[in-house]
Amino acid sequence: MVEISTSLLSVKKDNIIKAIYNLETAKTDYFHIDVMDGIFVEQDTTEKMIEYCDYLSNITNIPLDVHLMVSDVKKYIDMFLPYNPNIITIHYEAIKDKNELLDTLDYIKLNNCKAGISIKPDTDITEILEILENVHVVLVMTVEPGQGGQELIQTVLNKINNLSMYVKEKNLDVLIEADGGININNVEDVKEAGAEIIVSGTAIINSDNYSDVIKKMKTP
Questions:
Q1: Nearest to 7 by CA among 218, 184, 198, 139
Q2: CA 154 – CA 17 distance, rounded (Å)
Q3: By C-alpha distance, which of 152, 204, 202, 199 is closest to 177?
Q4: Whose CA is closest to 91, among 171, 35, 46, 130?
Q5: I want to staple 71 with a disulfide (CB 3.0 to 4.6 A). Which of 31, 40, 118, 212 is the partner?
Q6: Measured between alpha carbons, how far is 156 from 136 in angstroms, rounded to an integer?
Q7: Distance between terminal CA atoms of the chain?
Q8: Which of 29, 37, 65, 179 is catalytic?
Q9: CA 21 to CA 4: how far, in whole Å?
Q10: Catalytic site residue 34?
């Protein structure tokens, strides 16, 4: 059964505490923290996500799944480490130097946190194959990063499938996460492609029943 990482990006500030409690009751597996800096992507969610993490650290034990869509990666890792996230995922496209990328992934792991690498829809999986042994999670973006509520790019499912087959062939201890435009109408396609963690935001947050949507997404 897949795990569900619920994005809080579309939750309004005046509803965040209620949403956290309701999502915990609905048995979300993670709270997905979409951190954007206004540089790597146009939108800047830094202040909002810090505020949400402050709430989360005080009222829930559900693990945090922090996705950094930022250019100054080290700065943002240090910004969110105090919240003791379960996963911190950085973008392959944000760090051009391979040694710096590996050092950054090691830095995450040295801070008792799982390290993830994310790729945009246009980035080929061959770009990251040689570093898969250095990560716990690969987050494949199924939309262009930066905005919630986009439609899933169907062609990316082939990328997830190819990545899944490679991970199994090499017997790697790596989870595949998919993020963007996933809802109850297309989640089966994403799971069949090989995703083991499903990130969903508006499909859950905009529904009348968080529990029902999460249950349907998890059910094989």
A1: 198
A2: 34
A3: 199
A4: 35
A5: 40
A6: 20
A7: 6
A8: 179
A9: 16
A10: yes
pLDDT at 204 over 70: yes
Tell me: pLDDT of 150 over 90. Answer: no
Distance in angstroms (rounded) separating the CA atoms of residues 161 and 169: 12
Under 8 Å between Cβ of 36 and 80: no
Cα–Cα distance list, 46 to 53, 76, 80, 120, 147 (Å)? 11, 9, 10, 20, 14
What pLDDT is attached to residue 220? 80
Residue 5 token pair: 């990482």
Encoded tokens for 37? 């800096």
The two tokens of residue 24 are: 């915990």
Element (H, E) at 24: helix 16-25
Determine contact, residues 85/65, Cβ cutoff 8 Å. Answer: yes
Residue 103 appears among annotated catalytic residues: no
Separation CA 161–CA 143 (nearest Å): 16
Tell me the pLDDT tens digit for each residue of 160-177.
999 999 999 999 999 999
Residue environment code for 47-85, b if the CB has 16+ CB neighbours within 10 A, otherwise e = ebbeebbebbeeeeebbbbbbbbbbebeebbebbbebeb
Retrieve residue 213's tokens.
Answer: 């949507």
Structure tokens of 56? 């989360």
The predicted model scores a pTM of: 0.96
- Pick the catalytic residue from 34, 37, 103, 106: 34
pLDDT reported for residue 148 = 64
Q: Look up residue 92 and give its amino acid.
A: Y
- The CATH number of 3-218 is 3.20.20.70
